[in-house]
Amino acid sequence: MKVDLTYFKLGGKYYSSGTYNTEKTDLEDVWDEVGDMLKAGFLPGLCEDAKEFIVLINAPEHEGNHPRLVMPESVIVCDMACKGGVRGPLT
Q1: Which residues pair with 69 in a beta bridge?
Q2: Average of pLDDT values for 82-86?
Q3: Which domain holds residue 25?
């Protein structure tokens, strides 16, 4: 199955796109696969070790397709640690 990936910088600005083929048939497995690729820094269409991107996943060939965002761990950790609406890197 073909999977389309759209990459955004952490501020939300469009950066690039890529595609790959997967043997996965369940959307949750595809989402997990892309999350693992993001953690490892091996995303199609980006240079090696690219880990700081928001990834929009779309699998147009899947009958139950709907888009999904995958966030890098740094954004998730930062968001959970923020207080009073202040956002930024952890110190």
Answers
A1: 56
A2: 53
A3: 2-81
